[in-house]
User: What shape does this take?
Amino acid sequence: MRHSHPTSEELQALIDAQMHLEGPLLPILHAIQEACGHVPEAALPLIAETLNLSRAEVHGVMSFYHDFRKAPAGRHVVKICRAEACQSMGANALSEAVLDKLGIGWGGTTPDGRVTVEAVYCLGLCACAPAAMVGERLIARADVARIDAELEGAA
Amino acid sequence: MKIWVPMDSAAKALGAEAVVAAIRAEAETRGVEVEIARNGSRGMIWLEPLVEVETPEGRMAYGPMTPADVSALFEDGHEKALGLTDELDWMKRQTRLTFARCGLTDPLSLPQYEALGGLAGLRRAIGMKAEEIIDEVKLSGLRGRGGAGFPTGIKWDTVRMAHADRKYIVCNADEGDSGTFADRMIIEGDPFCLIEGMAIAGIGCHAEKGFVYLRSEYPDAIAVLGRAIEIARAAGVLGADVLGSGHAFDMEVRVGAGAYVCGEETSLLNSLEGKRGVVRAKPPLPALEGAFGKPTVVNNVISLATVPVIFEKGAEHYANFGLGRSKGTIPLQIAGNVRHGGLFETAFGMSLGQIVEDLGGGTASGRAVKAVQVGGPLGAYLSPEQFDTPFGYEEFDGQGALIGHAGLVVFDDSADMLGMARFAMEFCAVESCGKCTPCRIGAVRGVETLDRIAAGDASAIPLLTDLCETMQDGSLCALGGFTPYPVMSALRLFPEEFGAVREAAE
Ligand SMILES: Cc1cc2nc3c(=O)[nH]c(=O)nc-3n(C[C@H](O)[C@H](O)[C@H](O)COP(=O)(O)O)c2cc1C
Ligand code: SF4
Ligand code: FES
Ligand code: FES
Assistant: This one.
């Protein structure tokens, strides 16, 4: 259940569900992103108030981490590994081909809102490189055709 | 008929689930009863998905399997039959201590875990005084497998002796280094082993709470470990009274958020506390003021997962393997452009050349090996001329290199070394926590300088060298401090690619 316009009650419930943890801020941000596909601006004051932090502090934490998105991504997120082991197996050419084909850059989303492509640094598939991820599915020895096929399948 | 198919994420990424579906369908068509069991990976990633069929002689291996190969599994003779898994050269040549059960056991079966020696170490530790537990770890010679190689027993002792109302065991499962996947493999393949190691650490250091900081890039590992913790808790391995010992220890998984620097232990602790993952100055040591200001052990997954076998077999047994001050075994992760990539656990001391050429079988492309980066993005490149270097902490240090988390990334002769040096600087710029100028600004300058060199301006080379020195001397942590390793080693080994003429050896 992903919806990008949660009510403040829904957001507060997501926050409260993590409050039993020591150091709950990252789990809260993860929970909201999991539910909403991004961390909506409206969540920040709620988090700040619940944790007794300033809004700037919450924003500072959120912006430090590559994972958290301020805006919803495309319907499908493709992550392509850019790290060394994947580069040794042609990751640069792969990502260039994928980005060219979609007509976007790193972190960009196609104009129809279908696909977002993000860089990732190592998926632990370094012995079967290059590696990519489409949604939750990992792809080893990735090539353009395999990534396309996953995107088709996920439609 | 019982068939094992790995649920390791590398196996899955290579099509294991499609093979499982094909086995189910084929069994149904043939009306044969098949039990499909799931295991971790045996580490022969080039053979994944590696399927095993149980026979009276032992488990027979087939791989790499595709759905089209499945039907022949039910008949005699198979073109992908490899023989008994245990008799394969790759398996026979290893000394599997930490990874003894990985690939053998069902990762989520506690009975299988125990039948294969699991929990014996924890039971022995429970019968010991905290001091004796620490002494055992010291005697084993175990050094941190996360990169710095600090003696684990000494770190534990500091935490044991610290006075505080709460202490923590934090497992560093951020595994951000390219070319490494040992943490992922053991968590997906034998998670109870990590849980047991952390429980022993807890009892030895009087800590009752553990955290595993696990990178978000590993969704499978997160799921498996979460499940294993629940099972362990239900069985009384974790909880208020660990195996009836009177000691309390429980743990939880915390998911990272895509910051490489959060693998650095103090940055990790800030992140765990819900702060920006900025590196903390030391002192205070995390062992004295760590998570939430309390004494904390921070150890890598492999360090902790090696503790059970040390207690099961005895510290001396462990310490008898290895080379000099690099005692015990190390799970080598052979990756990149290599024919036989995977995980191979062996005593320290094997030469780099043996690892790359003999175990790895040379490059996947069939071209010549140009360079091997050892120890992740902060590790140096080594050339085939350094292939006789034995794999050990001090031996690599002597080559101006490091072993890090023991990942080896092989490059063939098409590699663009100036491009790799530029990438190292770019990565440092992207991942810098921002606390110190040499790292934050230096890495950006490094990229610009390398672009100048790439454009043909060889006069920028001394600038690059100076910059690297500044980063090395003026950085608080190894992100800024060690990025010069890959950059300078690339320049030293392949000066012609930087437009510099190799200095005549006069
Ligand atoms: C930038 C940076 C990244 C690091 N990443 C990791 C990591 O992913 N996993 C890890 O165990 N140690 C990592 N370390 C090393 C840790 O700071 C620390 O030394 C280690 O977790 C201690 O555990 P050990 O003694 O068991 O090795 C990193 C260090 C730095 C400077
Ligand atoms: S060297 Fe870089 S990553 Fe490390 S503390 Fe300094 S700025 Fe942060
Ligand atoms: S470097 Fe790409 S998966 Fe590890
Ligand atoms: S991010 Fe704080 S110094 Fe730049």
About this structure: The CA atoms of residues 338 and 363 of chain B lie 4 Å apart. Residues B 261, 279, 432-436, 439-440, 475-477, 479-481 surround iron/sulfur cluster (ligand 2) (CB under 6 Å). The two ends of chain B are 70 Å apart (CA to CA). Chain B touches chain A through 60 residues (CB under 8 Å).
